[in-house]
Write a structure and sequence with these properties.
Blueprint (H helix, E strand, L loop, with lengths): L1 H7 L3 H8 L7 H13 L6 H8 L4 E6 L11 H16 L3 E6 H6 L6 E5 L5
Parallel strand pairs: 1-2, 1-3
Helix pairs in contact: 2-3
Length: 121
């Protein structure tokens, strides 16, 4: 962002706000900043944004009782996961699908958790 700001002679906060669609930046300025950023190869650092905002825009969906006898491609789990994904997508959220064991060993950095299944048998 600093390079884009320097190129255009604006403050980094103006570049940040323009790229985040803040209403405080005039449309003509926003367009110029976006075009310049694209021309300069600017790519949003999602990790830095998430750290700054203290959120990941990601929700974990945890299979509580994974089983080799029950496939996730069967109609009920597939329909359930599809519905969850639709709602999360509409809310601008990503989805991480994992099992309780993996979640306990290596919890992903997410804003929320949805547990699917009845838990340990």
């Amino acid at each position: 962002m600093a390079d884009v700001a320097r190129e255009l002679g604006v403050a980094k906060i103006t570049v940040s706000r323009a790229l985040s669609d803040h209403a405080t930046v005039k449309e003509s300025t926003r367009k110029l900043i976006r075009e310049t950023a694209e021309r300069m190869g600017y790519r949003l650092n999602v990790s830095a944004r998430n750290l700054r905002q203290q959120r990941t825009r990601t929700t974990s969906v945890i299979e509580m009782a994974p089983s080799h006898d029950r496939l996730m491609s069967e109609p009920y789990p597939l329909s359930l996961l599809s519905g969850i994904m639709q709602e999360l997508t509409a809310a601008g959220q990503n989805m991480v699908l994992t099992t309780i064991d993996l979640f306990a060993e290596h919890p992903p950095s997410t804003d929320g958790v949805i547990s699917v299944g009845a838990g340990r048998p």
